[in-house]
Amino acid sequence: MPAITQPFTLPFRPAIKMRWEHLLFIHWAVDPEEVQSLLPPGLDVDTFEGKAYIALVPFTMRRVLPARFPTIPTLFDFNEMNVRTYARCGKEPGVWFFSLDAANPLAVAVARARWKLSYFFSRMKIVQETSQRFTYTSYRLFPAPKPAIAELSYEISGEPELTKSGTLEHFLVERYTLFSEKNGHLYKGQVAHEPYRVQPARLLTLKQNVVEAAGIENPACEPIVFYAPGFEVWASSVVAL
């Protein structure tokens, strides 16, 4: 397996490097006031045409290592899934994670301590049944709130294409800042990667309560669904705001 290559100059000192693969984005439009009530002080809900969005995003992390380490194939590969929304700190847009489930207890512990993120250890599995059809399962083991599960299957179509500025897809995925909070203090981290290439996807089945476990009433509207094959990613440590 080839080593991760860096195709551009990073705008920050990287702490970790990794690869993200098989990203499925399931988004629901929700009331901005509901989302705002769940954000910590200092963050404002970010909207597109007056709507806020909640997302469930399952994917696979590969070769997750400190940035200066040589690549070790498959040693730190694991599945992950997050429940997220979109927020701003002043004029800076970013992502706010309500929860992040991962199938690696070491990654959970490090991310909780170093990145101040709400990680949970879960039993997870992704199966690529065909070149276009996938199943994904996640069962939270610890800590609470539990139970928090997701069972889904989906099918992709078309070819990956860059998102266009001004579109909803671009608003949802082209974000390079994450916000976190601990003990009343806000933090900011950065990621760098190639622009997203996304393609159509269709949910075949979905059973989940991870959105509700995050404190969000399950949306009643039909979700917006698309898929991204993946790319190499670099991430900074977080700094206090």
Summarize the structure.
The chain has four helices and 14 strands. It is mainly beta and 241 residues long.
Top keywords for this entry?
single chain; 241 residues; mainly beta; Acetoacetate decarboxylase-like; 14-stranded mixed β-sheet; 4 helices; 52% strand
Q: If you had to describe this structure to a student in words, what would you say it looks like?
A:
The protein is mainly beta and 241 residues long. It has one domain (16-240): Acetoacetate decarboxylase-like (Beta Barrel), CATH 2.40.400. Helix content is 10%, strand content 52%. It has 4 helices and 14 strands. It has helices spanning 32-36, 105-114, 168-173, 210-213; strands at 16-30, 44-45, 52-66, 78-89, 92-102, 119-128, 133-142, 149-156, 161-162, 177-182, 185-193, 197-208, 224-235, 239-240. Strands 1, 2, 3, 4, 5, 6, 7, 8, 9, 10, 11, 12, 13 and 14 form a 14-stranded mixed β-sheet that branches. A hairpin with a 2-residue loop joins strand 4 (78-89) and strand 5. The longest helix is centred in the middle third of the chain and has 10 residues, at 105-114.
